[in-house]
Design brief:
The chain is of the alpha+beta class. The chain has 10 helices and 10 strands.
């Protein structure tokens, strides 16, 4: 695995950084999304044959990280090109690829992703949304919560379960559900978190879908699911690292300029050392994120799964610490709208909670990596 970024990656990072800084913290999501799409950044991970850049999650994570570091993150990048685009590119039919990938790449269409349920939490094995056959069609019934951007998405990739006729057990399957499908309802969830993307609860009441709404092989099960979840974890790490870098840059600027007793406060080790530690933690998290992206793009799903979980954990912890230290460095100013970092206190915690909690990642590492017995 390369440990130093290529010249191409450095150029991409610089170009995206310039784009993010032009828009800044008060960015308009739609304008930035459109411009990023025109420059080829949204579809950088999608196949060239379908209008993408032919890169991978490594390139897409650079885009999201740099936009976040400029204070202008695009949350739907985690969902639309990273999860949905990747799953369709790997497992979709030719018709699904032709229909969705060029539009996802050029930003003219977006797709949401629904997996979390009220009673299942982080346990994807307990998903109760079920799909049953009705002639040539499928009928989908269930509920989803904390689904981002459904109001702006043309469709939602829903994780349901079908019954295995051989064993009677339920297995996960993925379905493309159009926004206007009869029986497909949504309710806006009011959040304390200040974000441009809204959160929704979804209800699926015998939503009738044609056979071609099923993505991939009905029997592939968890393979297809984790083809989307591993990029989700990697991109969440990029989101967190970018946010942490933005908060840290604000604190560094302030610590250089703010003078007390004729000395910039950044000269004092009580200020300087915690900021240095935050920078180190963010850099270490990025290394694990780059490892996870490399393994995923190389086709090592097992290795990528372990690294993606570790990257998401490390980035979430580093982001929370960086934001906390940034606010603390600014003191009272850190809580004002003028400096724009107080809102990150809540946003930073998302990286600890979603798409999987840090405790579930610790469970994964203790069981899968260390071979320790399960407690559940």
């Amino acid at each position: 695995m390369p440990t130093i970024e290529t010249d191409e990656h450095k150029s991409l990072r610089n170009a995206v950084s310039a784009l993010g800084k032009r828009h800044g913290r008060t960015y308009d999501r739609d304008q930035l999304w459109s411009e990023a799409a025109k420059l080829g950044y949204l579809g950088v991970n999608l196949p060239e044959a379908y209008g993408g850049g032919g890169g991978g999650i490594a390139e897409l994570s650079i885009v999201l990280e740099e936009l976040g570091a400029a204070g202008a993150p695009l949350l739907m990048m985690i969902v639309s090109p990273a999860i949905c685009g990747t799953v369709i590119a790997r497992f979709g039919t030719e018709s699904q690829k032709q229909d969705w990938l060029p539009a996802l790449a050029d930003g003219t269409r977006t797709m949401a992703f629904g997996i979390t349920e009220p009673d299942a939490g982080s346990n994807s094995h307990r998903i109760s949304t079920t799909a049953r056959r009705d002639g040539a069609d499928w009928l989908l019934t269930g509920r989803k919560v904390f689904v981002s951007g459904v109001d702006i998405a043309d469709a939602t990739l829903i994780v349901g379960r079908t019954e295995d006729s051989r064993t009677g057990r339920l297995k996960p399957c993925l379905f493309i559900v159009p926004r206007d499908a009869p029986g497909f309802g949504r309710r806006h969830i009011e959040m304390e978190l200040k974000a441009q993307e809204k959160q929704f609860e979804l209800t699926l009441d015998d939503v009738r879908l044609p056979a071609e709404a099923l993505v991939g092989d009905e029997d592939a099960g968890l393979l297809q699911l984790f083809a989307g979840l591993n990029p989700e974890r990697i991109m969440t790490a990029a989101f967190a690292i970018g946010m942490g870098r933005y908060a840290l840059s604000q604190a560094i600027t302030y610590a250089k300029d703010r003078t007390v007793w004729n000395t910039p406060i950044g000269a004092h080790q009580a200020i300087a050392h915690p900021l240095a530690q935050a920078h180190i933690d963010l850099e270490l998290a990025r290394l694990m994120m780059q490892k996870a992206a490399y393994l995923y793009d190389e086709g090592d799903d097992v290795g990528a799964g372990e690294a993606a979980n570790m990257a998401k954990y490390a980035a979430g912890e580093a982001c929370v610490k960086a934001v906390d230290q940034a606010v603390h460095t600014l003191g009272g100013n850190g809580l004002t709208r003028e400096f724009g970092i107080a809102s990150l206190i809540t946003a930073a915690r998302v990286a600890r909670i979603a798409p999987v909690s840090r405790e579930m990642i610790l469970n994964y590492v203790s069981h899968q990596t260390l071979g320790l017995p399960k407690s559940y």
